[in-house]
Amino acid sequence: MRTGLGHLLQKARSVMVMTLPALLSPSLPHSSALPILCASVATAATMSGSTVIVPGSVAQQKRALRSEIRKALKALPPTQRAQEDTAIQNIVLDSSWFKSTRGLCAYISCESLHEVDTSRIVAEVLRDANDREEKKRLYVPRVEDKNSHMRMLKISSIKDLIANSMNILEPSPIDADGSQREDAMLATHPVDIFLLPGVAFDRHGQRLGRGGGYYDVFLKKYQELAMERRWKQPLLVALAYSVQILDDDVIPVNHHDVLVDALVSASGVIPISTAALDRM
């Protein structure tokens, strides 16, 4: 059995060496494929009718892929990053699906995390919230603990945000008047769209997050809430730089991962789900 397993691993490595560069997006340098290789060998293989576990769990594969995409993001020239930020935000702001939304959850972009910029989108929503009769409601994430517990709290001004220990802007839980800030899970009106960050994505809707599971846990809870209240399910829209969009089946997934409905890159909108095709 040991000899058979060694042969299987060697064969798997040979196959991965030949196929991995073709699987990765052209935007991700092929030189980055080798570190991923060690963690990308299949987690299980059938030999003589029995299942044999081989090195490379989904968690290990995810960590390896995160590392490679983060390197690609760091290597992205500032001018290209700025151009893609502008293009992505223009696409969102000019779209009918964004203009018609009344309830929006959006992340506050963090430069050190190399996230697609959302500053103009947030500013536009807050301007709508204060200047128009049909006001938009904006909820932004607040991490509560290290157990994947996150809330989406309503803000009406940039002043409602404070920097946490990691220098990421989050809403304070108490409003300026001393009242509890409105929680999206307790609101009487639905959220129409979630604008999501992430490390990598593909055109099947698979999303690789930063590893804490905060968004996956929250999104599942909100989808269950929408179902209970008979609300239309929110559109889950990810914002991505070109180097973050990979070919299909490269991103490792498990049953906890929530698929996104659409991607927005500098090249345009990529609708994935039926809901996105209908509404976008």
Q: Please, could you describe this protein's structure?
A:
The protein has about 280 residues and is an alpha/beta fold. It has a domain at about 60-140 and about 180-280: NagB/RpiA/CoA transferase-like (Rossmann fold), CATH 3.40.50.10420. The protein has eight helices and 14 strands. Strands 5-4-3-8-11-13-14 form a seven-stranded mixed sheet. Strands 10-9-12 form a three-stranded mixed sheet, covered by helices on one side. It has a two-stranded antiparallel ribbon with strand order 1-2. Strand 1 (about 45) and strand 2 (about 50-55) form a beta hairpin. Helix 1 (about 1-25) packs antiparallel against helix 2 (about 35-40). The longest helix is centred in the first third of the chain and has 22 residues, at about 1-25. It is globular. The termini are far apart. The relative contact order is 0.13. Residues about 1-55 have low confidence and may be disordered.
Q: In CATH, what is the class of the domain at 59-140 and 182-278?
A: Alpha Beta
Shape label? globular
Uncertain stretches of 5 or more adjacent residues:
1-55
- Cα-atom Rg, whole angstroms? 21 Å
Strand order of the largest sheet: 5-4-3-8-11-13-14
**Could you report the average pLDDT, rounded to the nearest whole number?**
83
Helix residue percentage: 25-40%
From the 3D coordinates, which CATH architecture of the domain at 59-140 and 182-278 would you assign? 3-Layer(aba) Sandwich
Strand content is 15-25%
Largest sheet: 7 strands, mixed
What's the β-strand tally? 14
What is the CATH H-level superfamily of the domain at 59-140 and 182-278? NagB/RpiA/CoA transferase-like
Succession of helices and strands = HHEEHHHEHEEEEEEEHEEEEH
Total number of helical segments?
8
Euclidean distance between termini CA atoms: 53 Å
Q: Output the CATH topology of the domain at 59-140 and 182-278.
A: Rossmann fold
Main structural class: alpha/beta
